[in-house]
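INFO batch 0412 | record 1 of 1 | parsing
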Amino acid sequence: MSFTDAELSYLASQRIGRLATAQPNGTLQVNPVGFRYNADTGTIDIGGYNMAASRKFRNVAANGRVAFVVDDVYSTDPWRVRMVEIRGDAEALADPADGQAPIGGPIIRVHPRRIISFGLQSGDMDQEPHTLKAFTRNV
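INFO prediction complete | emitting tokens
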């Protein structure tokens, strides 16, 4: 499995992430998106209204390179942030039979290649905020 139990639990508790895609001219585009973890495929499925007509969908169809981040501020006193960053390959699927995105229809399916998480591992909330280390691995 690519994700730890803590990462899966965190992802299940969140509804919005940010998807970065590369446009044809090389510039980057970042959009807030709805998502769900697809346990059957081990992927992140991203959906939304009129997805197939979106620039992000076309960007993925053209080159498939993405980064996806889900994060939040758990506490401000002390300052505690949590996050999962997923770098990988994606596909633009017009009619997925097995999609798990919050809205049916076309999706972007993210296949993790590198996962970075922070503030989610056992004991992280007991440590001094500035001593935490990111949990990084290739999958």
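INFO post-check: The helical segments are 5-13, 55-63.
INFO record closed
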